[in-house]
């Protein structure tokens, strides 16, 4: 059975997580990986929860279904960390926040490696926030903390 890395993106509708996840998938495919990705949305309303499940492997992936044990969890809205049971075992968290200390407000003490990205500041300054997030996920996927 191939080694499968699981990544999950969390955000609110309109945050652009599907676009960023798609850019990540394309980057992984270009590197020669097999990838399965699919979005999951709550009923269509403003500010509803959106998720993108991604599975990555060096070999073809036959395991279908949602990400259940993510290696990396990416949060475009820090408030989604609260009461999020799916990500308690994630080894690495990438969170949209200007200050890493805010993460402890929602998670308390955690053993996860935390990367903070201020997406709002990147947007304000005209930087390509989506590429920055993709690069951060790739770095977290292929390196040990």
What's the assembly state of these chains?
A: single chain
Count of domains: 1
The helix/strand class is alpha/beta
Mean pLDDT: 86
The SSE string, one letter per element, is EHEEEEHEHH
Describe the 3D structure.
- By secondary structure, the chain is α/β, with parallel strands linked by helices.
- The protein has a single domain (4-142), classed as Pyruvate-ferredoxin Oxidoreductase, domain 3, CATH 3.40.920.10.
- It has helices at 17-30, 101-107, 119-124, 129-142, and strands at residues 4-12, 34-41, 49-57, 72-75, 92-96, 113-117.
- A 6-stranded mixed sheet has the order 2-3-1-4-5-6, covered by helices on one side.
- Strand 2 and strand 3 (49-57) form a beta hairpin.
- Helix 1 packs across helix 4 (129-142).
- The chain is globular and about 40 Å long.
- The chain starts with a strand and ends with a helix.
- 29% of the residues are buried.
- The model has no long low-confidence stretch (mean pLDDT 86).
List the helices and strands and how they pair.
Layout: E1 4-12, H1 17-30, E2 34-41, E3 49-57, E4 72-75, E5 92-96, H2 101-107, E6 113-117, H3 119-124, H4 129-142
Parallel strand pairs: 1-4, 4-5, 5-6
Antiparallel strand pairs: 1-3, 2-3
Helix pairs in contact: 1-4
Give structural attributes.
six-stranded mixed β-sheet; 145 residues; 28% helix; single chain
Question: What's a quick, concise take on this entry?
Answer:
The protein has 145 residues and is an alpha/beta fold.
């Amino acid at each position: 059975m191939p080694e499968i890395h699981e990544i999950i993106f969390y955000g609110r509708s309109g945050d652009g997580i599907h676009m960023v996840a798609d850019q990540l998938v394309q980057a992984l495919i270009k590197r020669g990986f097999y990838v399965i990705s699919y979005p999951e949305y709550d009923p269509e309303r403003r500010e509803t929860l959106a998720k993108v499940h991604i599975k990555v492997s060096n070999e073809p992936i036959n395991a279908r279904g949602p990400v259940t044990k993510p290696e990396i969890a990416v949060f475009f809205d820090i408030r989604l960390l609260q009461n999020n049971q799916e990500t308690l075992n994630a080894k690495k968290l990438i969170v949209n926040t200007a200050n890493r200390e805010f993460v402890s407000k929602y998670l308390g003490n955690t053993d996860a490696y935390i990367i903070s990205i201020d997406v709002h500041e990147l947007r304000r300054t005209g930087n390509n926030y989506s590429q920055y997030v993709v690069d951060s996920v790739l770095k977290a996927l292929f390196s040990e903390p």
